[in-house]
Write a structure and sequence with these properties.
- By secondary structure, this protein is an alpha/beta fold.
- 47% of the residues lie in helices and 12% in strands.
- The protein has a five-stranded parallel beta sheet.
- Helix 7 links the parallel strand 4 and strand 5.
- Pfam families: PIN (PF01850).
Length: 144
Amino acid sequence: MKRRFYLDSNVFISFVREEIDKAFNLRFQESMDFFKLCNQGKHEVVLSKLFFAEVQKITALKKELVLEEFKRLEIEIKETGTMPDEKLAFEIVKECGIHYSDALHVAFAIGNKADFIITWNRKDFEKTGKLVKCLTPSEISSNL
């Protein structure tokens, strides 16, 4: 079954920067494994304006280069056209007690009917589980 994944920027950033976490897990490799799972139309990856802004801030990669990389990886993407409902994001902040930027990611995911938020910062989204499920790239294959 084809799934729709809202991608948090840290997954792509870990891939690009070839990051390894404190426990010596190869985050870049696990991110690549997730991207392989998504390639060739098996699943759809949702990217937001916030995703592109965060990637550019951390890596200096502009949107066009990011899109080229997804094309090279043969990953079907859906770009979100507009910002999410700010009222919804504010309600998520109040209800879940998370940062506004994380609430925007959740609102983007909800507005684009994502099945999951894929992130390395799962802890940031734990309180939003009743709105949209959050998984790390390494957890996704066991949840499909």
